[in-house]
Design goal:
The complex is a heterotrimer of chains A (417), B (237) and C (273). With 417 residues, chain A is mostly helical. In chain A, 69% of the residues lie in helices and 5% in strands. The radius of gyration of chain A is 31 Å and the shape is extended. The longest helix of chain B has 34 residues, at 8-41. The chains are: A mainly alpha (417), B mainly alpha (237), C alpha/beta (273).
């Protein structure tokens, strides 16, 4: 009896220490999570603050006369200039005029051209049209460019400031939602630059990547898991696939350059090639995830099928594959999300060009979202740094929705099983 | 009897046990009746038939023995099923002894048929035998219908049989004292009476088993025993 | 109740099932099974009569499940498993060259320890076998097969109005009866059962034992069980395995009342593990 009492005493003595250790451990965990979440929040907040402004663009309301002369000369920007002259009649000097014209974007004329093409009845009419201002004016309106330093240190001259203030007083200058960001391709002028070409390029590349990697990956995984004999050759293959998943992505870009571009002579910068390179990169991920999904199918189902007299192919197609499909899809979507964010391999195959037109087919030159971000990050204009952050937000948004899709799919299919 | 086991073959096994017991009981009852009839009428052929038929009862007892072992091994009965099987085994032993006593009566009948009848002894014996026969019938009914009241009643009626046996003892002693030439016959008749009384005791034992089968409890109170034959002394004066 | 003195019972032994005269459906001769270098079964010679339940009993790891799985060649999918000797179904060796395993498994069905219905509807579960073996020419024929199988398995009353419900939504006992229905839908000749009731509660077990009693009239059943009591209740023939050997085989009532081998007696009385 004393032994038991002694044991009880010992246990009691150690309890306080154990509980303290547990509390410490929990504290460490909470600290770790807090640190991680803080970093994440700081990063997201910084990006959102920096890029949020890009979703708005400053426009000025100008009275435009669609006169025949300008149209005949194809001088659309001239209409804009004429309107500016009318708005500020006392601007005479050549320098001043040039600086006045500089208030509006160079692309304002293209807007007018598109309007007349859509609606020819506008010819000869006079309308008040909201047109995009230049990127400096935009930055001023968004408060990025500071008014306070002396003129020499500022991008906007005092005279320009007076004109802008006049507009502000008249209410003819305002920030509007920047639809152009989502509808146009890249441009030298930041106020005209949009991500659509990059977005389309990414979508096309990903489509090619999915079309190539999903069937190949799934069939490879099925063969390796269900049909292949277990010998040292298959072991070797498995080791190699696992290694490939860890290879830096730029190596795949080099492979693409050497084989697809130089040997097969496929067009440079095309989503077709980009997709093929990305497929090579994602294939190991899909194979590994699919094999894990196949292994997770309980052997009792396979035994039941074999016991019924189903052949191996029937067992796999009727029972194992449908049950493993949710896991395979999840793995695929995660692989796709990774591919979406890759820029290094695409750089190697030339998807780094300056693409203005929206790519329509798989062989049109295109760029991808991460590459676009990389290019814009290089540009000096203030407005481009805003747009870089905005493009990052768009990229994150697409990634989050893809992962959300993966979670929803997994939940939906898992419920049935 | 109501058995609704999910596995119907278990019901069949237990039903078979009931049927064999019923057959054995009916046979035993008939043996007693025939033996006493043979004694009263001096019917030697009937007595011989009783002696021959005893082996049927023995064969049934052997069958019950084997069958209960089989049911115990293969079905692992519990609760009332277990009591049913154990009681069947005990009842078979009791019924087999009853058959043996009936055979003994028949054997003595063969011997007595060569001698003159003694007074009213045989009719007294016949009365006692009828009582026992009724008891056998009732107890087998009680077993078949799980009627505990009937079984308890049979158990108590044995007292009358005991009383009858005591008075029969006296009667036979009287005959023997009257005329020493009766001694041989009366001695045989004494044994016959004893056999019938023992049959009554076995029926009582069966009744107690039936009580146990139905209620799961043993009867603890002593049943009334009024067999005073062991104390009977007749003093010749 | 009037006691009848004229009960029509044979006075000799109870009517036992025809233990003597049945032909042997499955016979094993000199069967050895190896997993890699380790020998799991040594020189098994077993005769299984038709239309009866044969129980294989023995302590854990004695090889009875391994032997059962040899009978429909399920051990083919296990790596490193090697079988020598002959196993004959209706006199023909199932391990001979050129034997179609798929066809064999349609003749020899299997029910597993843990109920494993496919994650499909009840109807599709039972219809799977007939579908892949092409046993029905029309939807009506398939319906007929499914309903008959469910009826034979004693499940039809409980699922008649929800055939499209998932098979995994049934209770454990119902799932196992569904698996039995699935196995008999292809009209096998032999049904192998690997501890079919070990995952079930006593009532569900009793229902399945009753079902097995009925099924044996049309099928030969070979059942592995680690419950000796179940073997005693359900089977007519029993084979006792110990450490990879077949120690004794015979009538169930003999094995459980008076076994010939001491090891058998020690096992059934609970003196060895």
């Amino acid at each position: 009896m004393t032994d038991r009492a002694k044991n009880a005493e010992r246990i009691k003595a150690g309890l306080a220490r154990r509980y303290r250790a547990e509390k410490r451990f929990r504290l460490y965990g909470i600290l770790a999570i807090t640190a991680a979440v803080t970093f994440l929040l700081v990063m997201l907040t910084a990006i959102v603050i920096r890029g949020g402004g890009a979703f708005q663009q400053t426009h000025a309301a100008l009275e435009i006369t669609f006169d025949q002369q300008h149209i005949a000369d194809n001088d659309w920007q001239g209409m804009v200039k004429a309107s500016l002259r009318r708005a500020f009649p006392d601007v005479r000097a050549r320098q001043d005029k040039r600086s006045l014209y500089g208030l509006m974007s160079n692309g304002a004329g293209f807007d007018l051209q598109n309007m007349v093409q859509d609606d020819p009845s506008l010819v000869g009419q006079t309308r008040t049209i909201w047109l995009p201002t230049s990127d400096d004016v935009d930055m001023l309106m968004k408060g990025v460019i500071d008014r306070s330093p002396p003129e020499g240190d500022r991008r906007i001259t005092d005279k320009e400031l007076t004109w802008i203030d006049q507009w502000i007083a008249a209410g003819t200058i305002a920030k509007q939602f920047n639809t152009r960001f989502f509808t146009s391709g890249d441009s030298r002028e930041p106020e005209l630059a949009g991500i659509l070409s990059a977005l389309m390029g990414s979508i096309l590349s990903l489509s090619v990547c999915f079309a190539l990697s999903f069937p190949l990956g799934v069939m490879t995984a099925v063969y390796l898991e269900e049909f292949a004999p277990k010998n040292k050759w298959t072991d070797l293959i498995e080791v190699n696939i696992n290694n490939l998943a860890a290879v830096p992505s730029i190596v795949f870009g080099l492979l693409g350059l050497a084989v697809f571009l130089n040997i097969f002579m496929l067009p440079r910068s095309a989503p077709l090639v980009g997709g093929m390179v990305l497929a090579l990169m994602t294939l190991p991920t899909i194979i590994i995830a699919s094999r894990a999904a196949l292994r997770a199918v309980p052997p009792s189902i396979r035994e039941a099928a074999y016991g019924m007299g189903a052949s191996t192919v029937q067992t796999v197609l009727h029972h194992v594959l449908p049950l493993a499909m949710p896991g395979m899809l999840t793995g695929t979507i995660i692989g796709m999300a990774q591919a979406l964010g890759e820029s290094a391999p695409l750089l190697m195959i030339g998807m780094v060009a300056f693409i203005v037109d929206i790519p329509a087919g798989f062989t049109d030159p295109a760029t991808a979202l991460p590459v676009q971000i990389f290019l814009w990050a290089d540009s000096p204009e203030r407005a481009f740094s805003e747009r870089t952050a905005a493009a990052i937000i768009v990229l994150l948004g697409v990634l989050i929705s893809m992962n959300l899709l993966a979670v929803i799919l997994r939940k939906k299919f898992e419920r049935r099983w | 009897m109501e058995h609704d086991h999910i596995v119907s073959s278990f019901d069949e096994d237990l039903g078979r046990l009931d049927a064999i017991i019923a057959q054995m009981g009916g046979l035993a009852e008939r043996q007693l009746s025939n033996a006493v009839d043979a004694l009263c009428r001096g019917d030697v052929d009937l007595a011989q038939r009783v002696i021959d038929d005893d082996q049927k009862i023995d064969a049934l007892e052997e069958e019950i023995d084997n069958y209960t072992i089989r049911v115990l091994a293969l079905r692992q009965p519990v609760a009332d099923d277990l009591r049913a099987v154990v009681v069947a085994l005990k009842m078979a032993a009791n019924l087999e002894r009853i058959g043996d006593y009936a055979k003994n009566v028949a054997k003595r009948t063969l011997t007595l048929s060569a001698m003159d009848p003694v007074g009213n002894a045989t009719s007294s014996i016949q009365r006692m035998a009828h009582q026992v026969q009724a008891m056998i019938k009732n107890v087998l009914d009680a077993y078949a219908t799980h009627d505990i009241a009937k079984a308890d009643d049979v158990r108590l009626r044995d007292e009358e049989v005991d009383l009858m046996h005591t008075s029969l003892f006296r009667e036979l002693l009287t005959y023997m004292l009257e005329d020493p030439r009766n001694i041989t016959a009366c001695t045989h008749l004494l044994f016959v009476a004893k056999n019938v009384e023992r049959i009554g005791d076995h029926v009582t034992s069966i009744a107690e088993n039936v009580h146990f089968l139905v209620s799961g409890e043993r009867l603890t109170d002593e049943r009334p025993k009024n067999d005073r034959s062991s104390e009977t002394v007749i003093v010749e004066n | 109740m009037e006691l009848s003195l004229h009960t029509n019972l044979p006075s000799s032994a109870y009517v036992e099932d025809n233990l003597v005269s049945s032909p042997h459906k499955v016979t094993a001769q000199g069967v050895d099974v190896y997993y890699g270098d380790k020998q799991a079964l040594k020189n098994i010679n077993l005769d299984v009569p038709s239309n009866m339940v044969t129980a294989l009993i023995g302590p854990s790891g004695c090889g009875k499940s391994t032997f059962l799985r040899c009978l429909n060649r399920m051990n083919d999918v296990v790596d490193g498993c090697r079988i020598t000797g002959q196993i004959k179904l209706d006199g023909e060796d199932i391990y001979a060259r050129g034997v179609d395993v798929v066809h064999l498994r349609a003749r020899v069905g299997m029910v597993f320890q843990k109920p494993n219905p496919f994650p499909k509807s009840i109807y599709d579960n039972v219809a799977y076998g007939p579908r892949i073996h092409g046993l029905a020419d029309s939807r009506a024929e398939l319906d007929d097969i499914v309903l008959t199988s469910l009826e034979k398995a004693g499940l039809i009353a409980e699922v008649r109005d929800r055939l499209e419900a998932p098979g995994t939504g049934l209770s454990g006992g119902q799932q196992q009866r569904l698996c039995i229905a699935r196995a008999i839908a292809v009209e096998p000749e032999v049904i192998l059962m690997d501890e079919p009731c070990s995952a079930l509660d006593p009532i569900a077990t009793a229902k399945i034992e009753e079902l097995i009693d009925e099924l044996k009239q049309n099928y030969t059943i070979i059942m592995v069980t680690h419950s000796m009591q179940q073997a005693a209740r359900v089977s007519q023939k029993t084979a006792f395995f110990h450490l990879g050997e077949l120690v004794e085989q015979g009538d169930t009532s003999d094995i459980f009342t008076n076994p010939s081998d001491e090891r058998t007696q020690a096992y059934v009385t609970g003196r060895i593990g």
